Amino acid sequence: MKTKNRTKFFLTLVIFSLTGQIAWVVENMYFNVFIYKMFGASAADISAMVAASAVAATLTTLLIGALSDKLGKRKVFICGGYILWGISILSFCFIREDFIGAIFPAAASVSAVCVTLVIIMDCVMTFFGSSANDACFNAWLTDVTDDTNRGAAEGINSMMPLVAILAVFGGFMSFDLGKSESWTAIFAIIGAAVIVIGVAGFFLITEPKLEISQNKNYFANIFYGFRPSVVRENKKLYVYLLAFAVFGVSIQIFMPYLILYYTVSLRMDNYVFIMAPAIILAAVFTAFWGRVYDKVKFKKSVFPALMLLMLGYVLLYFFRGTVLVFIGSLMMMCGYLAGAAVFGAVIRDNTPENRAGMFQGLRIVGQVLLPGIIGPAIGAKILENAEKIINDDGTASFVPNQNIFLASLAVAAALCVFLLVVFKLMESKGENKNGK
Questions:
Q1: Minimum mean pLDDT among 55-59, 61-65, 351-355: which range?
Q2: Which CATH number does the domain 6-206+218-386+393-428 belong to among 3.30.70.100, 1.20.1250.20, 1.10.230.10, 3.10.20.880?
Q3: Cβ of 228: how many Cβ atoms within 10 Å?
């Protein structure tokens, strides 16, 4: 075990992972609802926002990950990044039609200006968040774990998105999301919490002992993971990154529209009460599945996770009743987070030591960039001719339908075929004897 003080390590992991995921939940799921309810955003607007954020996250992680490797520092980037991340979240308190309308009185459409500002500020927020979380916190997690405890740590790290969803949904369930003052309160609370955790990190995080990069060419370090020689030396890492990207595409086809599907399509105003038990059970399952990975490794742990995910899609596609939607959501969430845990762990297992920061950009390409561009675009295309509803103010909004789950199912099935082929090729070359 590389983590000598296990209690402090796991406390730090939980606090920073959970806080980061709460901020990402607000961005990845609530921003979509925010611009949909406040400014009448279309599916194309939501897709554009997710894609722009994915590009920003990838570029940031490439730049800052390589820089943290070069300097041999993680802590200052994590803590400082969280503080600036929180400040950027607070800025969304001022994106309101009354406030923006006063600044741009000649604008033909204040709503369109607000949507544009949200997309721009989302990219700014993503820069700070990806610097702190995607680039340096994830590199730190790779630095301070090894193959004896990486699955357990990744299981906890991967369950945090669902815990964060539960915290956000439960914490703000009484808020009327059709009112701008509710959004002001949400952004103020989350922004302040992220700032506080950033300050606390100076006392909680132990700086790992890293070898300062001998390559003084910073820009060469940025593109280190894209060198053909590096790809040849780490073939398995790149294959798993590609598979992770396909997995992410399956998730991102439906995820930007999930809350809207529950509330608009299924009219589940009480969806928080329905989803809370599913989220808790899925989080527990994911923590358990991370330990399963430590014992049986990737090959034997990835397919059960994918089967659960696909069964969830099937139920969500065919049924609209509360009980079956709950069961389908539970299976989907268990498969999603368990899959994310085993992919995250196998990528860390195959990341060269003392190069974790340089490879975080590659991880984000697979985890965020490709899924963030391709997935929502597929979802938007599927919903292009979706049913429309007329709002109280006379504007029209699209109604997400179950076809997003059918498309996600098709991508997940293709991933299973891809992995089967990969494992068969590895076995023929004797490269997969330990299940990694």
A1: 351-355
A2: 1.20.1250.20
A3: 7
CA-to-CA dists, residue 182 to 38, 102, 186, 325, 351, angstroms = 11, 20, 6, 28, 43
Q: Identify the bridge partners of residue 390 per DSSP, sorted by sequence position.
A: 396
In this structure, what are the phi and psi dihedrals at residue 401, rounded to the nearest 5 degrees?
Answer: -120, 175
What is the number of other CB atoms lying within 10 angstroms of the CB of residue 433?
8
* Tens digits of residue pLDDT in 69-118: 788 888 999 999 999 999 999 999 999 888 888 888 877 788 888 989 99
Burial state string for 149-172 with b = 16 or more CB within 10 A and e = fewer than 16: bbbbbbbbbbbbbbbbbbbbbeeb
- The CA-atom distances, in angstroms, between 26 and each of 20, 190, 237, 239, 432 are 10, 8, 31, 31, 39
pLDDT at 43: 79
What's the count of helices (H) and strands (E) in the chain, helices before strands?
18, 2
Rounded to an integer, the average pLDDT of 25-31 is 77
Task: Please compute Rg for the chain using Cα positions.
Answer: 21
> Which of 360, 306, 376, 358 is CA-nearest to residue 335?
306
Cα 47–chain centre separation: 15
Residue 322's CB: how many other CB atoms inside 10 A? 13
Whether the CB-CB separation of 143 and 66 falls below 8 Å is answered with no
Tokens of 160: 């945090």
SS3 400: coil
Rounded CA separation 32/183 (Å): 12
Domain ranges of the chain: 6-206+218-386+393-428
Q: What pTM was computed for the model?
A: 0.72
